Structure formats: C-alpha cells, structure tokens
Amino acid sequence: MQKIQHQLTNTPNHSEFVAHDYTSTLFPYFEHWRKQYGQIYTYSTGMRQHLYVNQPELVREMNQCMSLDLGKPTYVSKRLAPMLGNGVLRSNGIVWSQQRKIMAPEFFTDKVKGMVWLMLESGQTLLQKWEDCIEAQGGMTAEIQVDEDFRDFSADVISRACFGSSYIKGKLIFSKLRALQEVISQQNFLFSNLGGLKKQNEIGCLEREIESLIWEAVRERQGSETSSAEKDLLQTILEGAINDQSLGKGSSKRFIVDNCKSIYFAGHESTAVAASWCMMLLALHPEWQARIRTELAQVCPDGLPDANSLPQLKTMAMVIQEVLRLYPPAAFVSREALEDTQVGNISVPKGVCLWTLIPTLHRDTEIWGPDANEFKPERFIDGVSKACKSPQAYIPFGLGPRICLGKNLAMVELKVVLSLVISKFSFSLSPKYKHSPAYKMIVGDERCSSGLAPSSFTSQMKMASESDAEGGVKVDDDARNLLEHMGSNNPGRRLLALFQSTINGCPMVEEADTDGANAAPFVLQNTIFRLISSCTGRPVLVIMC
C-alpha cells in the first residue's frame, strides 16, 4: 500500500484541472487492486482481514442486512472513539439499536419541516455577511472563502434545531471537534493506534475539553424547565438516558456525551462540505444556476422557500443528487462480521471487515453509463430508480437499517441554503481555486473559493428574461467602445462573450486563462462585472470553496 501511495506522490500534480474522478488520487491502492482483481477481492493489514466489495448486488446485501452480527468495524470505532465515542454512529448490536430507536423520530420528515424557519434565519446571517464582503471590496464583486461560512451556517442550524442554543454558545465545541478531526485524519484509516505519544496526548486533551463543554451544556439544560412543545434532540437524549434502566450513572453520562458529539459532528460537517461542492459545481455550470433561479421564481415568488415549496424544487433536487453522486460526504461503507455471517453467496468469518468505496461505485460506467465522470443532473430527472442500472449503487447516505439518521435534515438544509444563495447571488470559481479533494473522515476540498454577486432576483431577473426574449442582452455604448479596443484574442473579450452567452441561455464553455501576460487586467475585469450587474440587476460574487 505504501509503495502504491509513494508512486502516486511522485507523479506530476495536475490539480489545476477540475476532474471529478479523484479516487485514484485519494485511494490509489483500492483503485490499483480493483483494476487488477475486479469488484471483489480480499487483502490484509497485519493480522486483520478485509473484503472489498463494489458489486451492486452485494453492496445492497451488505447494507440491508438486518442482523446485528454485521456492524461497524470495531478497530475503526476505537480509533474514532475520541471523536464519536460509542454513540449511534459507531455503536453495534443492542446498544446501537436502542440509540437509533430513541433518536430517529427527531429526524423524521415532519420534524425536519418544523426546522425550516430556523434554517432561513441562519441563512440570512450568511447572506448578510457575504453582502458586507462585497460592499467592503468595492460593491461589485468579492472573493469569498465559502466552506467556513457554510460550516458556520450548518453549525448554527444544528445548535438551534437539535440543542436549543445558538452557534455562539456551541462555537467552541465545533472548533474543538474540527481540531480533533484534523489530528485523527492524519492517521491511516486502515491501521489503528498509529501516531506518537505527543499526538495521542493531543487527542486526549481535546477529547476531555469537548466532553467538558458538552456536559456544561447538559447541566444547563437539566437546570432549566423545558416544555414538551420545546422538546429537541438534546432533551430526547437526556430522557433516553434517564429511562434506560440498563445504564448506570457512568454509562448514562457516556451515552449523553457520545451521542451529542456524534450529532454535533455529523450534523454540521457533512452538510457544510456538500454545500461547498454544490457551489463549486454550480460555479462551473452557470446554466444550472440559471435553471434553479427560474425554478425559484416560479415556486417561491418572494424568494424564500418554505416547508411546502421545498418538495417542488425538482431542478434543485436533481443538482444536489448529482453533487452527492460525484462528491459523497462519506467515502466508505464499512462493516465487520461480529459473528460468522453470510453476505449474498459469500460466507464471511467473524472478524473480517467489509469495505465499499462509494465514489468508485458512483462512477462505475457499467452502472451509470459512459458519462459517469461528468456533471449531468438531468440523469436524475425521473428519480434515482431511473438514473442508473442499479439504484442500490447510489448510496450517498448509505442504505438499509443504518442509513444516515440525518438524511432528511441534510437534504432540506441544502435546499434552503442553496435557494437563498442562488436567489441572491451569481457566482463563479475564483482564479485562485485549485481542485484538491482531501479525505479527512469525509471527502472535502482543502480550499474552496468562489465569486458571488448579490441579486434582487425576483424582479430584476424577470426583466433580464424579457430582454432575452427580444434578442438578448443589450450592451450599452461604453461596452461597445470597450469591445472595439479589444483584440479578437483578448481574454477580456472572451470573458465578456462567455458572460453574454450565459445570460442569453446559451452557455459557452471555455478554459479561463488567468496567468501571466494573457491575464485580463483587474480594471477590465471590474468593467465586465459592471456589465454583468447592469444587465442582470445582480452584483457579481466570485466564490472560493
């Protein structure tokens, strides 16, 4: 494995290209072995035996297995214990079953619908921050690092919706969890207990700090009066610990802390990363931005979605589904045979770990067709069942009894925040963007920046549509004078042509030239942004993911 990784490290870096097939970079040994041995093979790490499964039927069998004899790998759970403990994300057997039963109702669709207004409030804070950034950078365009802002948004939603507090109160918990995630992610996921004494001490210190902060919030809740109408996930966890007669005092505290850590982490990190990938892909494909704006104008005339209008956002759903296909937050489905068990026609001895690499499954050309590595949301126009040959091969949230608890929350949250952003801003990738997916317990980008432009979408966009129907965007005299002084190969002229074709509904794909003598001067760029603003009524925002 180290040899394969070393060979990759010494190959040229082509991160300037946005290629969605990143598995050979992040997981080179799996890709190497898959090409050599096929969709099913075994390998070992020391004394531990592993079974790699990427055949759709067997993946379905593995995920939909109802037996408690197939659970999460214990050695991985041990390594992630400082982050997730023995909460619902990592526990097995009866303990997991009881935790799931207690917490699942808090994420049912009807419950999540009641959280939409909280998401809208948190989203307004995000929009205001970006508007202030644009104003501070001249009022036309701004370069914004969006991933951290999406984390703040998701953290605020999960804090308020599930724990009855603001992000300000939970900010320290989130920052400590992020620091802990960073340290743990530096260890090899296939091997446990790697890392020196200094690193282990750092992990232990962060774990104690997080536990102390969570327990402080718990004691604060226990000292307050909470009516049934105000019941949230934290209250549900507390009541579950109290009502479980099998838990002693120490176990009860562990149950509360571990499940709070699990929800704090999973509830904000994966959704924020998914939102960043959505922005990146929509920045690359402005025609889909335009389609979503049109849909929002029809479904949400006031620009604000609600619980009833969200299910009508079909184009939005297609885009999110395609983003989650190309960039699923979880890279793996992993299981361990806790007893001798059967998966399909394969007998799996006790102790063997099973792995499915989700990005590879999501890009299999035999399942998804020859365009499997391309961004094509239209493949989901008739739903997941018609998007590919084997619907069980689409598992961004997992499948079966251990499907992600927060699936409904994540989908609603993504629809809400993207609706707000796309209604308010136009955006494109920053020239500084380097496509560099990284695996840190989830698949994220090391840097994601993009360019945004504020918009009074509901009224001004209609005017743009009218001029479009009359023959396209009207360019004023200043713009014509500008074009006359541009050579045919001037990158600024090409950028303006790209803008005009996009506004007119005929997107023109062209690789940007942003380096050296061919780069458009900043003054020219600002002029073009002014043209965009005057033609669309939307100031332009360049985003960084």
What does this structure look like?
- The chain has 545 residues and is α+β, with helices and mostly antiparallel strands.
- It has one domain: Orthogonal Bundle (Cytochrome p450), CATH 1.10.630.
- Helix content is 54%, strand content 10%.
- The chain contains 23 helices and 13 strands.
- It has helices spanning 2-9, 23-26, 28-37, 56-64, 74-84, 93-103, 109-113, 116-136, 146-163, 167-185, 197-222, 233-243, 249-284, 286-299, 314-326, 358-362, 365-368, 384-387, 407-424, 457-469, 477-484, 491-503, 522-536, and strands at residues 40-45, 48-53, 70-71, 142-145, 332-337, 341-343, 346-348, 353-357, 425-429, 437-439, 443-445, 449-454, 540-544.
- Strands 1-2-8-5-3 form a five-stranded mixed beta sheet.
- Helix 9 crosses helix 10 (167-185) and helix 13 packs parallel to helix 19 (407-424).
- The radius of gyration is 25 Å and the shape is globular.
In the CATH hierarchy, what is the class?
Mainly Alpha
Number of strands: 13
Oligomeric grouping of the chains: single chain
Low-confidence stretches: 8-17, 446-495, 497-527
For the largest beta sheet, what order do the strands appear in spatially? 1-2-8-5-3
CATH superfamily: Cytochrome P450
Distance between the termini: 31 Å
Question: Count of helical segments?
Answer: 23
Q: How many strands, which pairing sense, and closed or not: the largest β-sheet?
A: 5 strands, mixed
- The helical percent reads 40-55%
- Secondary-structure-derived class: alpha+beta
Cα Rg = 25 Å
Membrane topology: Single-pass membrane protein
Subcellular location: Membrane
Binding site for heme: 404
Organism: Prunus yedoensis var. nudiflora
